[in-house]
Amino acid sequence: MSASSLVSCILGHDSFGKPIDVYSRGGLVRCQPTVSDSHQYFIFLSGNATFVFSSTIEFKFPNVSHFTSSCGKIFVDEIHNSGRVIEYSEQMLKLF
What we know:
The protein is α+β, with helices and mostly antiparallel strands. Helix content is 30%, strand content 22%. Strands 1-2-3 form a 3-stranded antiparallel β-sheet. The chain is extended, with a radius of gyration of 17 Å.
């Protein structure tokens, strides 16, 4: 929902800094994407949360050691998972 709202603003369908209501199976949320002068994107998400899906995916990447965010947290798993999802998506596209 956040990503869709951001893309909507980037494509000019909605304006940065204004709330966007997003409806899903889990209910209504409000997203408010903003962009800084240095072209960094931020999204404020608010609304009810409803559990609709659960899954587990395991990825292994030997070449990535760590990534540190601005708050100092290390997000190794997120980097591994993101890269593997992209690779898998490209492989699946070749099948079709």
